[in-house]
TrEMBL record, chain A:
HAMAP family: Trp_synth_alpha
SUPFAM superfamilies hit by this protein: Ribulose-phoshate binding barrel
InterPro entries named among the record's database cross-references: Aldolase_TIM, RibuloseP-bd_barrel, Trp_synthase_alpha_AS, Trp_synthase_suA
Organism: Hymenobacter armeniacus
EC number: 4.2.1.20
Annotated catalytic residues: E45 (proton acceptor), D56 (proton acceptor)
Gene designation: trpA
Highest taxon, organism lineage: Bacteria
Protein name from the UniProt record: Tryptophan synthase alpha chain
TrEMBL record, chain B:
Alphabetized NCBIfam families for the sequence: trpB
N6-(pyridoxal phosphate)lysine modification, residue list: K94
The Tryptophan synthase beta chain-like PALP domain, residue ranges: 61-383
Protein source organism: Hymenobacter armeniacus
Catalytic activity entry: (1S,2R)-1-C-(indol-3-yl)glycerol 3-phosphate + L-serine = D-glyceraldehyde 3-phosphate + L-tryptophan + H2O
Pathway in which the depicted protein is active: Amino-acid biosynthesis; L-tryptophan biosynthesis; L-tryptophan from chorismate: step 5/5
InterPro entries documented for this protein: Trp_synth_b_CS, Trp_synth_beta, Trp_synth_beta/beta-like, TrpB-like_PALP, TrpB-like_PALP_sf
Molecular function terms, GO-annotated: tryptophan synthase activity
Subunit field text: Tetramer of two alpha and two beta chains.
Name of the top EC class for this enzyme: lyase
SUPFAM superfamilies attached to this UniProt entry: Tryptophan synthase beta subunit-like PLP-dependent enzymes (SSF53686)
Protein known as: Tryptophan synthase beta chain
Amino acid sequence: MDRIKHAFASKTNLLNTYFTAGYPSLHDTIPLAKALVDAGADILEIGMPFSDPLADGPVIQGSSSVALANGMNLPVLFEQLKGLRAAVPETPVLLMGYLNPVMQFGVEEFCRQAAEVGVDGLILPDLPLAEYEEFYQETFKKYGLKAVFLITPQTSEERIRHLDRLSEAFLYLVSGPGTTGGTTLPDAVAQQQYFERIAALKLRNPRLIGFGIGDKAGFERACEHAEGAIIGSALIRALEDATDAPAEAARFVRGIKPA
Amino acid sequence: MTATTSYQQPTERGYYGQFGGAFVPEMLYPNVEELRTQYLDIMAEPEFQAELKQLLRDYVGRPTPLFEAKRLSEKYGTRIFFKREDLCHTGAHKINNTVGQILLAKRLGKTRIIAETGAGQHGVATATVCALMGLPCVVYMGAVDIERQAPNVARMRLLGAEVRRAESGSQTLKDATNEAIRDWIANPVDTHYIIGSVVGPHPYPDLVARLQAIISEEMRAQLLEKTGTELPDFVVACVGGGSNAAGAFYHFLDEPSVRLIAVEAAGHGIHSGHSAATSVLGTPGIIHGSKTLLMQDEHGQITEPYSLSAGLDYPGIGPLHAHLGEVGRSEFIAITDDDALAAVAECSRMEGIIPALETAHALAALGQLGAGPDDVVVVNLSGRGDKDLETYLKNMDKLV
């Protein structure tokens, strides 16, 4: 069984933590991954920094800028990730980022190296579904990489069903309209209805809720409607002024998911 | 490309050759899809066309004149005409697009308008039509551009728009565009995003090109009247994202005898490290939801272009232009800051027209065309120079 399927089959209320590779310092990537998992994170999402992250709010824009200034890029990241599976042997790891750096690196070479270092899946929000099916799906499959698709309150049922058929990982439920870190939630009722509407579809894939989830209460609320949640911006914020980033990351995870 | 295929029309998925498409996150998919499935039908409605025509005539001031620039013609030994987009309401061609898009937004039931702006011309043109239609308007502008384009910021505010500072990245047009897209992600239902150039995800490049195509439509009729033929030998226009060039080229795209000259900003020189000459320095990649030529480093991070002209320092070009250049249908010329300033001085003193700095790049290309005495050259005079007075004052030593 692959790592993603195994995680969802063996655990409930999964916590997926996002952090930006190369932030706060260039070589924090692997120490942070290990600290997060040791503290209880169930899935890791490692952000590949991009100069123009359209789907991200100010916090992840900021961490991306810092990471790029620190010298992070895909060759450096893959070099660092050679130590990934020694640090976190069983945890599903996804790379999240934008299409342009992947295109410039070369899609096939990117997939080959990602698979080689033990990455399980990819989240590329600006890769359109039609392009994915026509040009990318085969390459992802060849290297055993699972694509994770986003669903928003505006996504039609027909499209959700289509994404559910394509997905072999989990569906990423965007909590409301907005970028990462701060969705504008008009009212809790509308959000509740959205989560219930998705739950009622009886999708074959598990769901994780993300965007704007930043504390224990938010995590637990998300877990009532899905298999777990994704936390990114709040973690990045916690790392902003940390003198010991891995220790701070561990403290953050324990605050969300006490042992 | 077969003979029967038009350069005007992208594929259903928005491709011009290998360029175009709609690389947007799922959060934007419904918005872009709503626009994609409806824009052609709405624009084909007789009521839409009638309202657009009336506004273009009575509000924008169209048709704009085609003026024969006789002194410059004599100097360059060819027959030069200016398409006077500088005489449009608000001082540039930008309003052709915003008038059309605001009518489209109303028919889509949108109640709030957002836009990005670099030099401020598109922001002013958007604020103007929002005032006309009584719709709230938010314009994103890079913090750096807000500082260097103060008069246009004041105009937007006077017109009732809210100008929001884009503080991310390089704080210029690219970042203002990012912020506008993020706003659209956060407001997917009530808001229409009026993009100012032939950039962004499909259908924007086609939508904006169609709305600017009035420029070349009028040119053809006016040329017939003044020269006896609809077809000139050269059409010259500056290119940042490329909206005025798209409009000036549009009805000549499938007329192979007409040479289409796209003039980019070379800044301090194409290879100086301070340039916006995307056709030379750019490579295929994705910017603002479109696959096109863009300036980027070896790792696919988008780099910041430079031009003295705030309207040309965009790190990409519209996918239509990337395609036209790739297949050889258009030719690119790059003009430095200094040569553009010299053209400002020349046009001001020889024709009594103070052009916008962007437009001056097109004028500066006149000496490089190789046009002969029997040739007809149309320069799209895309905007007037009032907004650039501060820059001109700072460079007075080069201008007088």
